[in-house]
Amino acid sequence: KAKAMGKGQYHVFDPTLHQKALKRLTLETALRKAIEHQEFLVHYQPIINLQTGKISGFEALVRWQHPQKGLVSPGEFIPICEETGLINDIGYWVFQQACNQLKIWQQTLKNDRLKISINLSVRQFSQMNLMEKVAETVTKTKISPQSLTMEITESALIDNPTHARTLLHEIRDQDIHISLDDFGTGYSSLSYLHTLPIDILKIDRSFINPLSQEESDLGLIPPIIQIGQTLKMKVVAEGIETPEQLEILRKLQCDFGQGYWFAKPLNIREATALLQSNPQW
Ligand code: C2E
Ligand code: MG
Ligand code: MG
Ligand code: MG
């Protein structure tokens, strides 16, 4: 083949490409083992009702408890799980864990209104029996589907518009809520969004980050909240890190908030303690 390219031309061996491929393969192998050895765990970050200050629920966020590296964040392994399809197993496992935990909290706290949000990847869209399995788990754990929210990123919708529409309707048919994650970072048209069964807009933290008391520039946050209100969707602000940001968002009538100012993602013990010492609605 090299010959066909003509005299004097060679395939150049690219060491960085080789290294990347090797690293990827190593990670993939490690991830398969991690599934087998059940090295994943779920952390829970509270979502706060900004008007009452009470805990509305939690977002379930997966972590990998690596035997050598310790706790690995999803940004480091979710992309490869999506590429390889491993996300189907991991994603469904997270969903089951979150449902079981929600049931435990609802029972021990005697509060059926506590909610859980679970992230759903693009790749999981093409999982044939995903919604059947979801329905099975909901029935088995006896939680109300209305206490569940599936978070889907705006970019996932744009990448798979046809598939996304079908899946979103399947979720809605089960009375599970739908949240549009990282809203504002994709380029979905508002007329398209308007035709989808979306309940919640989650403003990406890149919009919240620059907010401070001194600056009067609120950026795109007011129009985004306005869009949510017009489309009859609830609005969640992610990445609230300061009391100033919280105050601004509260004044702008943003419904819910999430961020380090309230709490980082917590393990079950910490989240339970938080629930026991704080009011929920
Ligand atoms: P996301 O769904 O947008 O989740 C919010 C991320 O922002 C979390 O990162 C959270 O720890 C972080 N965060 C929350 N508050 C703050 C804050 O005040 N400041 C800053 N700087 N960051 C904050 P995490 O846990 O590393 O997750 C990253 C992403 O990985 C998630 O983004 C989500 O897209 C994905 N992910 C996590 N768990 C799952 C899962 O079970 N399934 C799938 N498919 N994706 C997941
Ligand atoms: Mg999310
Ligand atoms: Mg998000
Ligand atoms: Mg985000």
UniProtKB/TrEMBL annotation:
Signal peptide: none
The EAL domain, residue ranges: 24-279
Protein name as annotated: EAL domain-containing protein
Organism lineage: Bacteria, Bacillati, Cyanobacteriota, Cyanophyceae, Desertifilales
